[in-house]
Amino acid sequence: MSRSLKKGPYVDERVLKKVAGKKPLETGVIKTWSRACSISPEMVGFTFGVHNGKSHIEVLCTEDMVGHKLGEFSPSTKFTRHGGKIQKELEQKRKVAEIATAKAAKTASASPSKKK
Q1: Domain 13-73 adopts which CATH fold?
Q2: pLDDT tens track, the chain, 116 positions
Q3: Residue 6 CB: number of other CB atoms within 10 A?
């Protein structure tokens, strides 16, 4: 749920201080730990290093991102995959198909037909 219109968007003061009066091209990556900070129009063009709990992920702010939070563009969890028995069977079939195509390509390139 979004923040109340009466309160306005939450923009971290430290982030605004780092952006104020600077040009996007001259400034490098601005590191921040404030994932809850909303992107304001003043931030467009700047590159932020948003902390995901382990490292800083570079996020280039564009006009489409205004109103969103910085943390939305820096995932903090790593998606592995959906598991289960069916998924394993599909992966095995895919692996067998890849091996078969690799063998077919290898035999086709290994036996070139020479004409005299």
Answers
A1: 30s Ribosomal Protein S19; Chain A (3.30.860)
A2: 577 888 888 999 999 999 998 998 888 999 999 999 999 999 999 999 999 999 999 999 999 999 999 999 999 998 887 777 888 888 899 999 999 998 888 888 876 655 55
A3: 5
